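agent> Task received from the user: take the single chain below, predict its 3D structure, and emit structure tokens. No templates, no multimer pairing.
agent> Plan: (1) validate residues, (2) run structure prediction, (3) serialize to tokens, (4) report one or two observations.
agent> Step 1 OK, no nonstandard residues flagged.
tool_call: predict_structure(input=
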Amino acid sequence: MLPLWLSIILLPLSTSAAETVLGVYIFSRHGDRTAKSTPPANLTDLGYSQIFTSGTYFRNRYIAPNATSRILGVNSDVVKQSQITASAPLDTVLMNSAQGFLQGLYPPVGSRLGSDTLRNGEVVRSPLNGYQLIPIQPVMSGTGSEDSAWLQGSSNCALATVSSNQYFTSSDYNHLLASTSDFYQSLTPLINATFSPDQISYKNAYTIFDLLNVASIHNASLPNSPLLTDSTLFQLRTLADHHELNLAYNATDPVRAIAGSTLAAQVIQALNAIITSRGQSPKITIEFGAYATFQSFFGLTQLTTLNDTFSGIPDYASTMTFELFTTRPSSFPTALEDLQVRFLFHNGTSSNGSIPTAFPLFGQSATELSWMDFRDRMNRFAVRGQEQWCKACGNSTGVCAAASSSSGTGTGSAVSGGGISKAVAGVIGAMVTLAVVLGLEALLMLSAGLRVVRKKNRITSSLNDTGGVGLNEGKEMKSVMD
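)
tool_result: status=success, residues=482
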């Protein structure tokens, strides 16, 4: 049980009237979908509803005229494209989820606002009652992730793949593989049409849970099955949680959490752009991604030590939100000291009846951090830009070929998070990439879920080494912005 003081801190947040929200970064999981083990996975009507409801909640929180925490200067009804940016991997489930979320965030404006009067006096009304079109930027990282049974299958980060594979040789894995064998074998009648006998084990903990979880939601005949009780499904979920967290994060090998490190850089870049432009850059950044990014970020920010919620796989439509705000009057502040950041998480669909909660990051007690403190702590593990990503991952082929050649041939013994030298990392990277192409990793994943993709990081190296905003701390922003 949490201490009383922490329980008070974690009460669902209602932003104080004295605060002014300047911008937000929202990272969301997709809505309900069909099973990974029966590709292609598709967003269901339930998933569409979940994600639309979540988008509607965030509209009511940040955008609507009477929003509880309305973002300074944001357009309430007709979207202003320069104020929002959205992205998702080239994946049917994630891309469609992003579209559904945006429909809730900026719904159709009706015939009054959704029309143009031409020079000749003709009135042209936009289709679908003023449906608003918001571009979604495709990103290569995570492409096909909802069809991939292997957590690192869509990352294409060589050393992250090597690191995650190490879990399959650990004592923890081998103990659970043996101790749960009878449990998984008892489920054979339910899953033998999808999994072969040698696949029905803890090795495939997530895909087995995923298949039966989807069935428990959509298959009306399952309640009549004595094999899949609530306690059985809970045990499957608990084992899958443990399995996937160990693939997504390891405290002694940071590269395993490459997805969380990349997200950290993206958050810093987006909030930094709001600050340096004094609110003229996109005020709202929305990104969709898979559960692995949540889990790796939870580990990197010490949230896994705070609450058991952060040790599990986030539910469909879960969100992480980063609020940039100030306690100054309703105008953009002129000093960095007046900027703060708050992290909020909601497990599952956000709605007016179930809202995100603020949690403290980095083992702190306060849910609010100064911008400078937040920036500096995030930059301890953030991976920014293609070159940094290639070095961290040990990749030297494909899009990383140029970065590899430009990094020089110094004699230093740079070491990655797992203690592997960069020279060895390059070799491992090439070998693992080749292994993916040849399909050798099928030993660790279901062949039906395999998708080989290339990594294209959309973060540019626009920040300085400390992630600074190009301003002297304690100085007025105006001195360098004018």
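agent> Step 4: summary for the user.
Strands lie at 20-28, 84-89, 115-117, 123-125, 136-139, 284-288, 319-326, 340-346, 357-358, 368-370.
agent> Done.
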